[in-house]
């Protein structure tokens, strides 16, 4: 089946989740292709994906030499998708913290409701997070509040990593100018999209913390976001956003 939709899933040590997430996405009534960006997981994640490729022709993999950062993984995936003419490009985690069924809602927000970017938002309708410690919930929630304050963006979940981009957004943004590689990458992509005047829609989701594998989050990642947002805002005063 030919589709113009592709889901990019970065992986590092996701052997417990990868087969289940792939099968779930391919079971949806709306068809999606999948691109795995695999950062040389020592647990054999790549081997599982390659075995699944024998069953699913819509499953693709790009293998990298090691952990090079979340942002660079997605940039690699975006460029791969643009070269192959996909119209809708999605970001999603491998660990089921993002419900694959919400991919359809993100797609419709762009294809039917005029969105240029759709965000799977934990905070647009309250706080919809399951299985997170209260400290992490508060950190994430107030991080988004902080980003709103510094940047002026009217986005409730500025750090969300579950998104749909239309092709025109990714073609307009100079992907090589995206500075951040970690947690702040998600903020920078939203901010840049917003500065170009694209329509961003937040779609309410329920975020459920992983039950298999280990989290990649760290305090250093949050520090990058805190100081990075200020630098990003200052740089924007000297940047032209024409399209």
Question: Any overview of this molecule?
Answer:
There is one protein chain. This protein is an alpha/beta fold and 243 residues long. Helix 5 (134-151) packs parallel to helix 8 and helix 7 (184-195) runs parallel beside helix 8. The strands form two sheets. A seven-stranded mixed beta sheet has the order 3-2-1-4-7-5-8, sandwiched between helices. Strands 6-9 form a two-stranded parallel ribbon. The protein contains eight helices and nine strands. It has one domain (5-236): Spore Coat Polysaccharide Biosynthesis Protein SpsA, Chain A (Alpha-Beta Complex). One of its GO terms (molecular function) is dolichyl-phosphate beta-D-mannosyltransferase activity. It holds the Pfam family Glycos_transf_2. Belongs to the glycosyltransferase 2 family. One of its GO terms (biological process) is glycolipid biosynthetic process.
Summarize it.
Helices cover 40% and strands 16% of the residues. The chain is α/β, with parallel strands linked by helices and 243 residues long. The protein has one domain: Spore Coat Polysaccharide Biosynthesis Protein SpsA, Chain A, CATH 3.90.550.
CATH topology: Spore Coat Polysaccharide Biosynthesis Protein SpsA, Chain A
Q: Which CATH architecture would you pick? A: Alpha-Beta Complex
In CATH, what is the homologous superfamily? Spore Coat Polysaccharide Biosynthesis Protein SpsA, Chain A
Secondary structure class reads alpha/beta
User: Residue share in helices?
Assistant: 25-40%
Tally of helical runs:
8
- The end-to-end span amounts to 33 Å
């Amino acid at each position: 089946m030919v589709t113009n939709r592709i889901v990019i899933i970065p992986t590092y040590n996701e052997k417990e989740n990868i087969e289940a997430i792939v099968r779930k996405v391919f079971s949806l009534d709306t068809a999606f292709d999948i691109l795995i960006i695999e950062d040389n997981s020592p647990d054999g994640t790549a081997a599982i994906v390659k075995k699944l490729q024998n069953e699913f022709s819509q499953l693709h993999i790009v293998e990298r030499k090691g952990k090079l950062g979340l942002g660079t993984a997605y940039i690699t995936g975006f460029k791969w998708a643009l070269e192959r003419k996909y119209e809708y490009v999605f970001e999603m985690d491998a660990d089921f913290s993002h419900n694959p069924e919400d991919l359809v809602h993100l797609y419709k927000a762009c294809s039917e409701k005029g969105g240029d970017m759709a965000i799977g938002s934990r905070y647009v309708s309250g706080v919809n997070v399951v299985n997170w410690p209260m400290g992490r919930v508060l950190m994430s929630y107030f991080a988004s509040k902080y980003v709103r304050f510094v940047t002026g963006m009217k986005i409730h979940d500025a750090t969300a990593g579950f998104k749909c981009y239309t092709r025109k957004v990714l073609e307009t943004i100079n992907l090589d100018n995206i500075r951040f590689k970690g947690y702040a990458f998600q903020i920078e992509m939203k901010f840049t999209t917003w500065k170009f005047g694209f329509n961003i829609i937040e779609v309410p989701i329920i975020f459920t913390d992983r039950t298999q594998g280990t989290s990649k989050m760290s305090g250093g990642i949050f520090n990058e976001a805190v100081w990075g947002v200020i630098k990003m805002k200052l740089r924007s005063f000297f940047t032209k956003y024409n399209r």
